[in-house]
Amino acid sequence: MILTLKLPMQGPLNHVNAYLIRDGNESLLIDTGLPTQEAMLTLTNYLKEYGYPNYVIITHYHPDHIGLVRLFKDSNIFIHEKEIEYLNFILSNEYEKEMKNYLLSNGFPEDIIDRMFRNRDRFYEIIKGVNFNKVIDGDTIKVGGSEIKILWTPGHTMGHICIKYNEILFCGDHILPNITPNVSLLRVNDNPLKSYLDSLDKIEKINGKIYPAHGEPINNVKERIEEIKEHHKNRLEEILKIIEMKGKVNGFEIAMNISWYKKWDELSNFDKQLAIGETLAHIKYLLEKNAIKQTNIGNKIYYTKN
Ligand SMILES: [Zn+2]
Fold this sequence. Notes:
The protein is of the alpha/beta class. The protein has one domain: Metallo-beta-lactamase, Chain A (4-Layer Sandwich). It has helices at about 35-50, 65, 80-90, 95-105, 110-120, 120-125, 190-205, 220-245, 250-255, 270-290; strands at about 1-10, 15-25, 25-30, 55, 75-80, 130-135, 140-145, 145-150, 160-165, 170, 210, 290-295, 300-305. About 35% of the residues are buried. InterPro entries: Metallo-B-lactamas (IPR001279), RibonucZ/Hydroxyglut_hydro (IPR036866), Sec-metab_biosynth-thioest (IPR050662), WH-like_DNA-bd_sf (IPR036388).
């Protein structure tokens, strides 16, 4: 039996779906919701009715998925090994130094950058005292009479996983029905958009129902994947055009000229952060494709067409 636990969150997404699978005399929870009072009440009410799970799988480290993991200290908790690596990295001074420097070199304003690094401490609180079991691609977990399979789908985060249970795929934020999942650059040497597009190919071959972490189940997987690929293709072309038109630009100029759903100045601070990550992920993809060239002048980075 599969139960969808709709947990509240603010903003356009409105909710996150946690899923509770009951198989034989065991149960598995996929994702936990935001670390808010409201989400905790909703989740614990569900669990009072259906029981606490033996196993918990976290699809990725974002707060709406890992947020309430501390409620499950008595369960076996699983997460991809890369997510632990990234959580540690994000909490490190090395990350702050590396990324701040990179963002400044790309011309992004200091006040936005400072805000990006401000809330990292909450991850300490979220994962404090939690024992994670690390999984990798292809791992299986026995729950009741069934085998749950882990599929590594890096991109939205570098340790993002989907979970296969019989003919059903729980896809976390890898594919969403109503928005294109954010793909952001978190480490200077990553190429998350390349990883993401490769991970879409990995899922395309899967038949069966797809349960996303936000919104309703997806029936037309292939179609949805094509739409998402098209979106990134268009954005890459748009960035190439911006660079072509302006000749030599930095990352901030590119970000400001992309046609987001609102004008740059009208975007919320949170949206700006997502937009910055998204811009850098696309720039990185174009660089590694040799479609554009990077020039460093002093500590400033500029892009030109190749
Ligand atoms: Zn999410």
